[in-house]
What we know:
Elements: H1 2-10, H2 16-29, H3 33-36, H4 44-52, H5 57-72, H6 76-84, H7 87-95
Helix pairs in contact: 1-4, 2-5, 4-5, 4-7
Amino acid sequence: LLSYDLELLQDSTTDSEEKWIAISFLAVLSQEPNVVSSPVTANLVPTLSLFMQSDQMIDGYFTAQVLAALVRHKNDKIIAEIMNSNIVESLINSVG
């Protein structure tokens, strides 16, 4: 699942609807503590950072949902990954 989502999110030729479905699925999955505590979850942050920079508002919305769920679980490794990426700056820019 992780490799599929990463390929889907990074593929510039993929239909926006497919990306929207993948990121909304990640938003739902990131509500589960077992998913967030998985070591591979921190690997999603660079991809989410790229996705947050999308021109589509819906992409940013669901990416923000994933980030909120990840931060809510207070996993130090994930929070460090988020802070070391440019995703916070992208989030602030998207809010205005």
